[in-house]
Specification:
Number of strands: 22
Distance between the termini: 129 Å
Strand content: 5-15%
Length: about 800
């Protein structure tokens, strides 16, 4: 049987048809990539967005009539309308699109709202997904619940106008801008399956912490960490000014982010249908990039630093809101930032405009007669823990596991007698922290944070078991750098260290921040926001307690004689004690054994801010470990071995708080007891600073009876304090004994010797002895002669350091010995 040959013409036709088919398939694929949403899904997502926008406007304005079932009246509007509309519709847009990819890819994802004043957006979306009503059952998913949802917003007894601890799914307080991206990276560390969607406001992007946070991608390990997906919400304006990033050219903006190591994708426009398709396609690409980066890194152990994706969403400020009000353009201008439409007795004509605005969202298509979201729209949200408002990482106490703790007694400094040996307190602590890091390597839930100061603060022992995390380029002679490590100190930014640690703690892990004491002041406001977060969450039963925020302040004010005045500032203590007594704890251990006992306690604690001040220079060691544990447990106590008032009332109380003041007080006591053997002296050391406050003001405070028992009711108290003297006066102002004389740092200092720093601030032993003599006139001529000797010593000291550049031998070689 012959097989007929195909004619040239028929072959040509088949080829042409095949090309057409291939082109059609390619066109169809390209169309799906560019327009991933089917018409039906597009319709539903746009409706869900309208629902979120409707709820947002309702929260800002309405007191009653939540579904507009009757004509809107002024009486339905809140008497005081407060809120921020400008960022809200854009965040609603982002949220519905994140919901889609969570469902499609079964993502473990939660949302950080950088432009936190867009509270209506996050509250509304958490309500739509059902989480709000689960946590707050009185705000039900019906018309009555809608009314409560609207009324509670920025209303007495309700919730704040920004994203807050009361908002399920939030780990980020919206009251202050700049920390969202740092928190996001902190959350992603050691969470390999987590994707943190971090929305950054373009106003927020102008803050120092946020501007630096873009560099955090050099520290994210694609093998062991999760992913951060930044979404820059570029809507153009702040309160009354344009934003910088919105006013630079597209090319410059893209080059900026590429220069920071990101792959930026742009979603720009104002037509909802086109924007939905573009956002959907862009998110698809971003998620695919993240998965490909992690797959390559994890399957091939590829430690090459990836260029993570990010999204720039450029949309109008106040999108879908009023276009023009009273002849002024609103949408797309700074006027949309807060309340775009004043509705009050002075603007009654705006009631109709508000009604028209709300009706533009067609609530009757979104909610049924009872006020419940239509089932076909409710199905768009993820379920269970996949809802961003219910993600366990956003309520980190749920995931928190206890640290495996070593026995700190094993690191005890042998102290045969008080002051017999010298030791470097933080050097000893470093070995303890090394063991903590080692024991918790498998759990991957403990990290040390600091701005390039871990070695300087003598905590270098941790590098025996771990590295600094660093995913950027390495060169010869680098030390302790690796893509994965338990130490994050390779960025010289206190803001980033604080933000990373907060994000790490808020998502259920443990850590500490070590810093030079003077420069911890850089994060004063960040500490404040975290302390406020802890205070509020303590009052929310559904919020689980998290691990404490632990600060180790080393290289402190009395050890900055070589760096000078700029490095001398103990004022963080003053700032900290202003916060709620339920939250803050301040410890000043006098030696290494006390430091070990204190830090073991701090790492085990929950829901506090613990501030520990410790030195790194060699100083006398006072207590055995057993004695240190007792002393730190009590927080304050009489050092009987240094006192001689047993069996009699003291003539003077010599108190001290901090390692250097303790040294100088004891040196002064030794001089007094040598020259005035009949003088009865009581020595008190304070470890827990809050013991000085009244028990009625702080849970650690001493009762009036206990305070009087220690300090007496009427004897003079000469108190050597680590920080500013007036802090002790503030803490003790209600106490009976008003004869309190505090010596501490008084803003005197330069590049000088260690002892001269104390002399310049009247905290040295010679000034302290003079102080006692001045308070006790009954010492008579004995006191006068001793005081003259002290003046002579101060002159001798000054001449000696000017000539030799170091302290007197008797200062450098001084040892405590109990006077006979």
């Amino acid at each position: 049987m012959k097989i007929k040959k195909a004619s040239k013409r028929s072959i040509s036709m088949k080829v042409q048809n095949g090309v057409k088919e291939n082109v059609a398939v390619a066109t169809e694929k390209r169309s799906k990539a560019d327009n991933p949403l089917s018409p039906d899904l597009l319709r539903k997502m746009n409706a869900y967005w309208r629902a979120a926008n409707y709820l947002s406007v309702g929260q800002i304005y309405l007191y009653d009539n939540p579904l507009l079932k009757e004509p809107l009246k002024l009486s339905h509007v809140k008497p005081l309308v407060v809120g921020h509309w400008g960022t809200t519709p854009g965040q609603n847009f982002i949220y519905v699109h994140l919901n889609r990819v969570i469902k499609k890819y079964d993502l473990d994802m939660f949302y950080i709202a950088g432009p936190g004043h867009g509270g209506p957006a996050i509250v509304g979306n958490v309500y739509l997904e059902g989480t709000w009503s689960e946590i707050y059952p009185n705000v039900s998913q019906d018309e009555a619940g809608l009314k409560k949802l609207f009324k509670q917003f920025s209303f007495p007894g309700g919730i704040s106008s920004h994203v807050a601890p009361t908002t399920p799914g939030s780990i980020h307080e919206g009251g202050e801008l700049g920390y969202s991206l740092s928190h996001a990276f902190g959350a992603a560390f050691d969470n390999p399956d987590l994707v943190v969607a971090c929305v950054v406001g373009d106003g927020e992007a102008e803050t120092g912490p946020l501007a630096t946070a873009w560099q955090s991608n050099k520290l994210l390990d694609p093998i062991t960490d999760g992913a951060v997906l930044p979404i820059l919400h570029l809507n153009g304006y702040k309160i009354s000014n344009p934003t910088v990033l919105a006013r630079i050219e597209h090319e410059e903006l893209e080059q900026f982010f590429r220069g920071c190591g990101w792959t930026p994708y742009f979603v720009e426009g104002d037509e909802p249908e086109k924007m939905h398709q573009l956002m959907a396609a862009t998110l698809e690409k971003a998620i695919q990039d993240i998965r490909e980066i992690q797959k390559t890194a994890r399957n091939k152990n590829d430690t090459t630093r990836p260029r993570w994706p990010m999204i720039v969403l450029r949309s109008p400020k106040g999108w879908t809101g009023p276009k023009v009000v009273d002849g002024l353009q609103i949408e797309g201008t700074f006027r949309a930032h807060q309340v775009p439409l004043l509705v009050d007795s002075e603007h009654p004509e705006h009631v109709k405009q508000l009604e028209s605005w709300m009706k533009s969202y067609k609530a009757e298509e979104l909610f049924d007669e009872n006020g419940r979201l239509m089932p076909e729209l409710a199905e768009l949200a993820p379920t269970g823990d996949r809802r961003m408002g219910a993600n366990p990482h956003a309520n980190g106490g749920i995931l928190l596991r206890d640290l495996r703790m070593p026995d700190f007694h094993l690191h005890a400094v042998h102290v045969p007698s008080p002051g017999a040996v010298d030791g470097q307190d933080t050097l000893v602590l470093g070995k303890f922290l090394r063991d903590v890091a080692k024991l918790n390597q498998e759990q991957r839930n403990f990290r040390v944070f600091g701005p390039d100061e871990t070695l300087s603060n003598l905590l270098g022992a941790v590098f025996e078991v771990t590295n600094r995390q660093w995913d950027a380029r390495e060169v010869k002679n680098d030390e302790f750098l690796a893509p994965e490590g338990r130490v994050l100190d390779s960025m010289l930014s206190e803001h980033q260290c604080e933000g990373w640690l907060e994000g790490y703690l808020l998502t259920g892990r443990h850590g500490l921040f070590n810093s030079y004491e003077a420069f911890i002041r850089i994060v004063d406001s960040m500490f404040s926001q975290h302390a406020k977060w802890l205070k509020v969450t303590l009052e929310l039963p559904w919020r689980r307690k998290i691990a404490s925020l632990n600060y180790l302040l080393a290289s402190h004010v009395w050890q900055q004689d070589h760096n000078g005045f700029t490095h001398q500032d103990p004022g963080f203590l003053d700032h900290v004690i202003n916060k709620k007594a339920d939250i803050v704890r301040v410890y000043l251990p006098p030696d290494a054994n006390c430091l070990l006992s204190v830090f073991d306690h701090c790492l085990r604690s929950r829901h506090y801010v613990n501030v520990v001040v410790a030195g790194k220079h060699a100083l006398p060691q006072w207590l055995t470990m057993d004695a240190a544990v007792v002393h730190c447990t009590e927080g304050i106590g009489i050092w009987q071995w240094a006192s001689n008032d047993q069996g009699a009332e003291p003539d003077v109380v010599m108190a001290c708080c901090g390692d250097t003041p303790t040294l100088e007080i004891l040196a002064a006591v030794s001089i007094l007891r040598q020259h005035l053997p009949d003088l009865k002296i009581r020595v008190i050391n304070v470890v827990d600073l809050m013991k000085l406050q009244s028990a009625s003001e702080h849970p650690h405070g001493l009762s009036e009876a206990d305070y009087d028992s220690l300090f007496t009711k009427d004897k003079h108290i000469v108190f050597g304090f680590h920080g500013y003297p007036w802090l002790v006066h503030r803490l003790t102002y209600r106490r009976t004994n008003r004869n309190l004389h505090v010596r501490g740092y008084k803003e005197e200092g330069t590049i000088t010797t260690a002892f001269d720093m104390r002399v310049q601030n009247d905290l040295d032993r010679f000034h302290l002895v003079e102080d006692v003599v001045d308070r006790l006139p009954h010492l008579g001529s004995q006191g006068a002669y001793l005081k003259q000797q002290m003046r002579d010593k101060l002159i001798e000291h000054k001449h000696y350091i000017d000539e030799h550049g170091q302290d007197l031998p008797e200062i450098r070689n001084w040892k405590w010995s109990s006077p006979k």
